[in-house]
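Pilot study result, target chain (161 residues):
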Amino acid sequence: MKDAPDFKKKLLKASGTLNLHPERVKDELFLGHEFFDPNDQVQVKYEMLRRHQIDKKAASTVANTFGTSRQSFYNAEKAFKQGGISGLIGRQRGPKRAHKCSDALLDFAEQWRADDSKNQSNKTLAEEIQDRFGIHLNPRTIDRALMQRKKKRRMKLQGKS
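Predicted structure:
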């Protein structure tokens, strides 16, 4: 049964509910009872709110006891009022990659940059992409996507050698 805590942590991480700092939770229930898991972010937030609402503890006290800031406490309180328990589940915010940058678009950008006769700015490249693909991109987004692509190629080559 030794693998159960690791398995639970993997499930919590996959669902986006893993508490990244369980060591900060100092509430007696989480320290003394196996049922209360400081790794479970939803359970920690719920118990924090319960301590405030039912046990009438001050917001700053419960925030400190549960290893969070007062602002995080108030955010959790608002989320709970709006969505109940499901409001306490963290959610991924925004795209985590350059989702507009297709391979064809990046191929075009690399080709455009390789052409020495077009010694022009990134802004001009962004305008070319807008004209050709109908996608508005910030010039810095293009830079980051190309750097990431270059890094992936380098890593792939190093892995094969």
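One observation from the pilot: The chain has two domains: 8-88, 96-143. A full batch analysis is planned for the follow-on phase.
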